[in-house]
Specification:
Length: 141
């Protein structure tokens, strides 16, 4: 399933399944491959994406948009950071936050971008750097 088909088939009230995340991961791998990164989601990510504490169900469309925008704005910075870099992808327009870590995958000989969890929360507090999207460039600077 292509990204646009995945996005069209996922309604905001739909709970995200492992299959949904697998399909999203495949699409994100294609996008992030230009940086030599492989996207992975933890089991905790799947548990948290459907958590009632998000107040409104997180959608695959929102996740895809967040990762795509992060790639556009911070892709080079992320790729150059190297193993053990930790940060938070933050979309101000949806209040989505995705803490992640970069880990070296010896088997594949590439960096894995591991999305540890996700939550809809504003403000989101973290000691890790925030990579903010969803604002105009004036507000970002």
């Amino acid at each position: 399933m292509r990204a646009y088909e995945l996005l069209e088939s996922n309604h905001s009230s739909h709970q995200i399944t492992q299959q949904d995340l697998d399909t999203l991961e495949t699409e994100l791998d294609k996008l992030y491959s230009v940086l030599g990164l492989d996207v992975e989601f933890t089991r905790h990510f799947l548990d948290r994406v459907n958590d009632a504490r998000n107040k409104r169900q997180i959608s695959i469309e929102e996740l895809y948009k967040l990762f795509k925008e992060e790639l556009k704005v911070y892709g080079k910075k992320i790729a150059q950071a190297g193993p053990d870099f930790e940060a938070v992808m933050n979309d101000m327009s949806t209040a989505l936050n995705v803490p992640f870590i970069l880990k070296w995958n010896k088997q594949k000989e590439e960096l894995d971008l591991i999305a540890k969890t996700v939550m809809r929360k504003d403000p989101f507090m973290s000691s890790d750097p925030k990579l903010v999207v969803g604002l105009t460039s004036k507000k970002r600077n």
